[in-house]
Structure formats: C-alpha cells, structure tokens
Amino acid sequence: MNSRDSQLSERLQTGFLGVIAFGLIMFLLVQARFLLICLAIAIIIFSLTSDAISAFARLRVPNWLATTLALIAIAISLLWAATTVVAQVNEVVSTSILYADRAQAALSSLSQRWGPQVQESIATFLGSIDFAGWIRSAAGQASSLISGSVLVVTFVGFMFSERIWFPVKIENLTGDPARAENVLHVIHTIMRRVNRYLVVKAAISAVTAALIWVIFRAAGLELSGAMATLTFILNFIPTIGTIIATGTAIAVILAQTGDPTATLIIGGACTAVQFLIGNILDPLLLGQTLRLSTFGIILALAFWGALWGIAGTFLAVPIMVAVMIVCAQIPWLRPVAILLSHEGLPDEEPPDPLRLRG
C-alpha cells in the first residue's frame, strides 16, 4: 500500500506540475504575443531566404554580400507591405463611412421582401454589431505592422549573423555528432515543408486576388485594390479565410451598388472564383504537401487564433507542421504526430506539389 500510495502521490505531483507549467506557458504566450509573433514571422522569412542565399553562395557570391542584399530586400518588402496594408485599411475606413447609409437602405429594402418579423430581426442583429469598433481595431492592428516590420527585420539580421555557427552550436549542445545531424535534419525538414507550402499558397492567393481585382474593376466598383489585398491575405487561412473574404466582398458589393440583383451577379462571380480555385487549383497544386489532418488544422486555427488573434490564424499551419515533425522524432510524443497527420504517416515525405498529376 505504501508503494502504491507513493506512486500515486508522484503521479499527482507530476500532473499538478504539468498543469502549472501548461498554464505558465499559456500566460507567457499571451503576454509576449507581439514579440513571439514577430519572432515566428522572422523565422519563416529567414527560412525562405536562406535557400536563396545558399544558391547565391554556389554562384561564388560572397556570403556577406548575399546576406546584406537579402536584408535590404526583406526590409524594403516588409515596409512596403506594411504601408500598403495601412493605406488599404484607411481607404476602407473612409469609404465605409460614405456607403454606410446606402448599405442600410439596401438591407432595409431587401429585408422588406421577407416580412416585418425578418426585417426586425435583421435590424436587431445589425444593431448588436459594433462596426465602428471593428474598424478602429483593424486600423490599430494595421498601424502596428510598421513597428512589427522593424522588429522582424532586426530578428532576421541576427539570425543571418548566427547562421554559420548554428550547426556547431547544435553539435555542442547535443554532444553527439549523430544526434546533431538528426536535429539538423528535423529542422531542414520543417523548413522545406513550410517553404513549399508558403510559396505555392502565395502563388494561388495571388491568382485569386488578381481575379477578384478584375471583377471589381470590370463592374466599376471602388475598393478593388483593398479587396484584392484582403483576398490575398485571407487565403492563407485555410477554409475560414476564403469564407470571410467571400462574405466581405459580397457585403462591399451590396453597400456600393444597393442593388440585390447586381450583388447576386457580381458576388456570384467572386464566389465562383473562390470555389473553383479553392476546390480545383488549390488541391491540385498543394495536394498533400503538409500531410496534416483537416480536423487538426481547424483546432490549430481555433487555438492560435484565441491566443494571438488574426496573426495566430496565419501562423497556425506552419506551427502545426513544426509540432508534428518534432513529435514524430520523440517516442513518447509520436502518438500526437500520428493524430496530427492526415494519413497517420508523419514521417513520409509529401509529394512535390509543383508536379501536376498526369
């Protein structure tokens, strides 16, 4: 009985300490989310550009020159992207004020066809939504992009400066060349899968955004650039991003035209673009690039979205890839990797998405 009691006491103590550690980690993830988000983005950018620098090195370009040019390009790209998003958000804010009355009139005329009860329900629902608060929140988050971009560039610069010594540090930390080689292999696998996903996803999102821009311009609507930018960004969020982008586009069309028929036609075209690309082109190019469970992706979106907001939904998939690959290398965490994988095969290398199926 004494041995059983001692074992039970040790297990309870271990579980209690685990709960405390989990709560502390969640607290730190929330309190330091701005710093951690910038660090995660910096790691992704470093991963994407390190291969390019290695390619330049093979062309006998000095490493310091390739690194300097990469940092300059990253800084210019991030600042340009941040200022573009801020400008588009400001345009949406100013334009939404102009079309607020027209949108209310359009919704009123549309709801009158369904009877007074439906009209009252829609009015109550719209009155409960704090559109002004959402706009102010979006503008505030957009304005923080510039300061975040500066921090990301700083992180990337220090990562490049430590890039040469990283394998040596891993070997000294592990104390075993074979174990160090295994750790570096895991890191390279994560970088390769995430890079492959981001490059293909960026190309697909760019095509979708370009088609949305063409539809808005052809219909003579405003905010074509803003809607294209929003579509490009939201398409990086699996499933949910496409729904939000399509719903926002339809709402903007209704607010500008005030005509349900025109909204149905133009909104139907935007929906068709999202549906065809999301259900044909996206699976054809991406396929099983990440080999992640669909249900696991939804859980990751909900978890990281609750912790880090919008930024968390963008980083959920890369973080999930890293967690799955790392758990696959640890025996007592391998069941977690199997549950996160799509086919229960977390170690199997995914096919190249750039090779179309014959």
Automatic annotation (TrEMBL):
Subcellular locations according to the entry: Membrane
The UniProt entry's sequence similarity note says: Belongs to the autoinducer-2 exporter (AI-2E) (TC 2.A.86) family.
- Record's GO cellular component terms: membrane
- What topology does the record note for this protein and the membrane? Multi-pass membrane protein
Q: What protein name is recorded for this chain?
A: AI-2E family transporter
Taking the first listed entry, what is the main subcellular location of this protein, grouped into a coarse class? membrane
Annotated transmembrane regions: 12-28, 34-57, 64-82, 138-160, 198-220, 232-255, 262-281, 293-326
Arranged from A to Z, the UniProt key words for this protein are:
Membrane, Transmembrane, Transmembrane helix
* GO annotation terms (biological process): transmembrane transport
